[in-house]
Design brief:
This protein is α/β, with parallel strands linked by helices and about 240 residues long. The chain is built from six helices and twelve strands. The protein has a domain at about 70-230. The protein starts with a strand and ends in a 10-residue tail after the last helix.
Length: about 240
Amino acid sequence: MVLGLSGVEHFAVTDAPVLESLIFKEQPAAGCDDGGRINIACTPKLRILGYLEPRVHTLQIADNVIRSDTVASPSVVVPGLKILALRVNFRVLREVKMLASFLRCFPNIDTLHIESALHDPSAIHYGVTREQHAELWQEASALKCSISHLKRMVFHKFRGHQNEFEFLKFIATDEHELESLLLVPLKGSFNSAAEVNEIIDKLDCPQFLAWASEVLIVSPKMDIARNLHKASDLSINDPFCY
């Protein structure tokens, strides 16, 4: 299913035993802070989901609304999901907290797409500090099991902001199965992949540098697939990139 959410206040998948892919093809309009409630109740074969946006989407698993303090439990997970796409502003603490909560709901994903978004600078909590982000991810130890099967991550529209690196450092802090991390810089942010690598080299985090040297690829040529035909083609394993 490929769904446009304009004007939809509540979308519920209550009984879809063979649904494999649920894609939201529209990005909410600028300034829109209410993209509706997404309720996933009975989707045993669902393996692809996105883009979810903590800024505008309220996620509900069966009867449980997911909040920033939601604790992982069997009643709030979709165990079969393999590919997840999220759009997050890493400069807004509330969105980053919801990112952590969303990840707890999908403990068996092997591919994660993150698109770095930049919303209105006047947004509440805008300008969150590096220290706040570092503390948040230090406290997110319970999230480790949710990324333990992660094999591939694509970071779209990477801006090189320190808060984005704090998330990457969190991903790197534990042993897991990650085989590939692809950074796709925002157009105009960097002149070359070498500039991104230069920034990474300056990070005061030897563990992250050692990890990144094994899995990190920088490529400015990949783009997010918003083509309706590609999104609807079930023969394409990952509809969020090409």
